[in-house]
Amino acid sequence: MTSLKVNVSGLRLKNPSMVASGIMDETGDSMIKMMESGAGAVVTKSIGLEPKDGHGNPTLVELDYGYINAMGLPNPGIDAFGEEMEVAVRAGVTVIGSIFASCEGDFSLLAGRMEDMGAAAVELNLSCPHASGYGMEMGIDPVVVKAIVASVKDSVRVPVFAKLTPNTHRLMDIGNSVQEAGGDAVVAINTLKAMAISPESARPILRNRFGGLSGPAVKPVGVRAVFDLYSVLDIPIIGVGGITSWRDAVEYIMAGASAFQVGSAIGHKGVQVFGEICDGMLAFMRDYGYSSIHDMTGVAHE
Ligand code: DHB
Known about the structure:
Layout: E1 6-8, E2 11-13, E3 17-19, H1 28-36, E4 41-43, E5 60-63, E6 66-69, H2 78-90, E7 95-99, H3 104-116, E8 121-125, H4 136-139, H5 142-155, E9 160-164, H6 171-180, E10 185-188, E11 192-194, E12 197-198, E13 203-204, E14 211-214, H7 219-232, E15 237-240, H8 246-255, E16 259-262, H9 264-269, H10 273-288, H11 293-296
Parallel strand pairs: 3-4, 3-16, 4-7, 7-8, 8-9, 9-10, 10-15, 15-16
Antiparallel strand pairs: 1-2, 5-6, 6-14, 11-14, 12-13
The chain binds 3,4-dihydroxybenzoic acid (DHB).
């Protein structure tokens, strides 16, 4: 019997697809909608300790091959987000709480709050490419990453995932830091630091000037990152970056991913993208004799 069920470091899912952080995951109701549309789990918008407004407009540039965004980590803060978590968790959504902070103590505090609110796992945003004092600024230093993951591991029992940046030549060192600190999985990749300029106004389009590139353009970078990480890590890898179709998802799994996340494609294909990807992948697995995602993980290395 061919099955899409996965177990990622103790997190059991009906299928390997997850909603990536930042898309349709800000309210309890939107998380319920995503789960009903077929996602195996939903990663929340990244939440910090205090409410944060984010950047002014424009925050998004739409390209033929993806998006560049610089939202500025807008979020209601962990206290107010509790109401949304309650709605989603009560409805049975498998919620992975994404958190950002500027030091290990705050990461641990936030992770503990997410666990108390019913998150099935936490995802540490160590990779936002353009926020001063957060994200990638910490996530490119293997020593800092190790300290943050170790501190969070001491604070919670739920699985701890670390979302990594591709904007580095030390990806494998950073992955090793996560593993050595006891992290349960890595999530690769977050967006690539990028910008767009308007010829007419002779200025960067985004208010923040720089943003993060996502969508089909980044898929080959993500597949390569997962392939590299799989060659050095024993912990599971969750692949993300430009997945639009079942073929893209299979590429990530064959590179070494145990599960995958979909973000930008929800924007242009709608919520039915999860059903399409899972149905297509199941048909492919039946045709090619893979009985589980586990069977297919990393086969491109053999
Ligand atoms: C934002 C955060 C991210 O982690 C990312 O990859 C892109 C944008 C943001 O909120 O601006």
